[in-house]
Recover the amino acids of this structure.
């Protein structure tokens, strides 16, 4: 088949640059991985059981396009119960998607005109920039820096804004950096967002994994609430990655618009997953707490361990990643990860996979047992010694 | 220091080194060592046990759950009877319970006969005990929160973003 059949846009988007590295890792035996972006817990049994029950009862038909009412009500109630954000109406402000990923695509396609600029953090999750480009928009990046604990600073936001700026796309707690924004951090951004009338797309998928502080959603600022689109899902909070279920909370006009795309492209998210998710959202707070406690212990263990072996990093306050610098090795992220994999059989992800500003860093996931982390740390320590790494 | 967090870590892994425990709790090693020692002295930590699936060894083990009915004594309630039951090393666990009987006794013996002898000759004759119902354990699936079936392997991909 010739590439001549492909459209112009898709030909400008390269496949993920680390595919080769991934393929290499998958062919090797005895690899200890700290490389995945999903929790290691199985979906809690009471949630799985609801899906089984739905199947037994034959609840296997399409749902409404926007999703089952009980689930939409569940997510609205959840935001009020957990984060004190009131006023989302399940009839108007909620839509259930196939993972949060679908939500990103829907929002970009429904909101962007050709050439509209979307400001996003760099490094950031891999799908953000391509989704914007596919929708005809233009990604504008703000480098978030380690010395600022990977927060978004108001001066950087102000600088990135042009007369083409339509949207600010944020993700806190952040993949890959583990960075968070608290209430005070957001307060400084609000006047800028108001002044420039920006839409804010807030990917809050890691909201339940906030350590030592209470998660703040940017939608809690009443003065910009109608401009905020909340993106969330069940994958990280309830270990439901494979169920592919997410949701969008936003102003009625935005929900109606994204539902036009959703209804023609997707029809509705898996009904079976939705029944399970009703159980998760209504009765899963305890699971979130338990998972969080476990992740917090692993975070402490791995950060203290990394600092002991010389890969210094600060204690991230959210998600389940640490993002240490490897600049002192003189290796690129990809070289470092490839050598670490080949010589010491530890798989981590090069920071460069998450954008140009991730170069010089590696993403280490701690969604693993303490025993696995311990083995990986020993191997990383040996590797650092073998390349004469100095702190 | 959050002692509950410390206890929860130890509950899942009593063998953990003090250094690793300190790293997990993000606390100073000496503080952790001192706290652990104090919790042991105060009998908040009462022991460190191993969960063993005896069925996978050559050793015969016969476990039983015994419902014990008893009469309370004036001023002492059930405590005196409980103390008499607990004294036997065969008794692994003893609870005062609500419902149709008073105590639940978990015992481990080598054979059914050994358990039966213990119940008939030691337990049932204890003063104050009026009835026993012995339920022999046929198979253990889960002990102390640990499922005894083979651990399912990590089904996740090696790398994902």
């Amino acid at each position: 088949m010739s590439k001549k059949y492909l459209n112009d846009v898709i030909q400008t988007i390269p496949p993920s640059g680390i595919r080769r590295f991934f393929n290499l890792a998958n062919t090797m035996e005895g690899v200890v991985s700290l490389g995945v972006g999903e929790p290691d817990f199985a979906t809690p049994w009471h949630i799985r059981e609801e899906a089984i029950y739905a199947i037994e009862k034959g609840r296997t038909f399409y749902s409404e396009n926007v999703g089952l009412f009980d689930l939409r009500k569940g997510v609205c109630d959840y935001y009020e119960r957990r984060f004190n954000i009131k006023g989302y109406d399940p009839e108007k402000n909620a839509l259930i998607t196939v993972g949060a990923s679908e939500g990103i695509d829907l929002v970009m396609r429904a909101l962007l005109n050709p050439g509209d600029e979307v400001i996003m953090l760099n490094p950031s999750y891999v799908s953000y920039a391509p989704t914007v480009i596919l929708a005809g928009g233009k990604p504008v990046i703000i480098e978030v820096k380690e010395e600022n604990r990977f927060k978004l600073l108001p001066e950087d936001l102000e600088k990135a804004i042009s007369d083409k700026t339509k949207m600010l796309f944020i993700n806190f707690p952040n993949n890959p950096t583990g960075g968070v924004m608290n209430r005070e951090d957001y307060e400084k951004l609000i006047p800028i967002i108001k002044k420039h009338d920006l839409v804010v797309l807030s990917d809050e998928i890691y909201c339940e994994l906030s350590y030592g502080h209470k998660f703040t959603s940017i939608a809690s600022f009443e003065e910009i609430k109608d401009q905020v689109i909340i993106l969330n899902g069940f994958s990280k909070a309830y270990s439901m990655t494979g169920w592919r279920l997410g949701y969008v909370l936003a102003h009625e006009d935005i929900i109606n618009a994204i539902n036009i795309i959703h209804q023609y492209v997707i029809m509705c998210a898996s009904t079976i997953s939705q029944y399970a998710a009703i159980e998760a959202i209504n009765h899963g707070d305890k699971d979130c707490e338990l998972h969080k406690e476990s992740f917090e212990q692993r975070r402490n263990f791995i950060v203290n361990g990394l600092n002991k072996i010389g890969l210094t990093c600060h204690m991230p306050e959210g998600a389940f990643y640490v993002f240490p610098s490897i600049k002192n090795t003189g290796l690129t992220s990809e070289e470092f990860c490839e050598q670490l994999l080949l010589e010491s059989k530890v798989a981590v992800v090069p920071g460069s996979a998450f954008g140009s500003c991730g170069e010089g860093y590696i993403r280490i996931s701690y969604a693993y047992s303490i025993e696995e982390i311990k083995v990986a740390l020993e191997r990383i320590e040996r590797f650092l010694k073998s390349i004469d790494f100095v702190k | 220091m959050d002692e509950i967090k410390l206890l929860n870590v130890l509950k899942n892994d009593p063998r953990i080194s003090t250094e690793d425990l300190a790293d997990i709790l993000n606390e100073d090693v000496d503080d952790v060592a001192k706290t652990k020692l104090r919790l042991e002295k105060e009998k908040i930590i009462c022991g460190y046990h191993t969960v063993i699936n005896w069925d996978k060894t050559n050793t015969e083990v016969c476990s039983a759950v015994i419902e014990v009915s008893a009469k309370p004594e004036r001023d002492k309630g059930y405590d005196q009877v409980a103390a008499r039951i607990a004294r036997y090393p065969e008794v692994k666990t003893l609870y005062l319970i609500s419902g149709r009987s008073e105590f639940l006794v978990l015992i481990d013996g080598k054979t059914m006969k050994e358990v039966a002898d213990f119940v008939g000759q030691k337990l049932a004759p204890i003063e104050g005990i009026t009835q026993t119902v012995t339920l022999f354990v046929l198979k253990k699936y889960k002990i102390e929160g640990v499922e005894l079936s083979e651990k399912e392997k990590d089904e996740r991909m090696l790398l994902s973003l």
